[in-house]
Amino acid sequence: MACEDGRAMEVRLTLNGKPVRVEVDPRERLLDTLRYRLGLTGSKEGCGEGECGACTVLMDGVPANSCLVLTAQCRGRSVRTIESVDAKALGPMLASGATQCGACTPGVVMTALWVKENPGLRDSHTLRELMAGNLCRCTGYDGIIDGLHAWVESDARSGGAA
Ligand code: FES
Ligand code: FES
Predict the structure, then answer these.
(1) Is the CB of 53 under 6 A from ligand 1?
(2) pTM
(3) Residue 119 pLDDT > 70, yes or no?
């Protein structure tokens, strides 16, 4: 992926726990850098305008729509994508009909991970409220919420962070 006007800038960030250096177009979206420059195609493009959440990644531990973030804004920051998530750990999350076509699933999982890693969020918000930025055209959301409950509860039973 070449820079259209020949200008490139260097961005160093931490990506999925590892230091990464990329040369990007200053106007390049994080979603495009991940998918087309770094080959991390797990993050999906749905709307491309911050509405659907399919492109959700964690930036410094907080969900962000990578279609709205410039890669240049990631300098010195930590970005986590769906590729960092152990698929085996997702069993309870995905066993309840939380995924059908799967287009929303990577974004759903990243937001769910944020919820799971920050149990205090659930003191003031319901799971449905916390997941409100991730749209799904297939499941009707019940499977996603049931799956998230199961994921959290399975960790609680095993002594992990709930
Ligand atoms: S593709 Fe980014 S929010 Fe829809
Ligand atoms: S499973 Fe198809 S959009 Fe959510």
Answers:
(1) yes
(2) 0.91
(3) yes
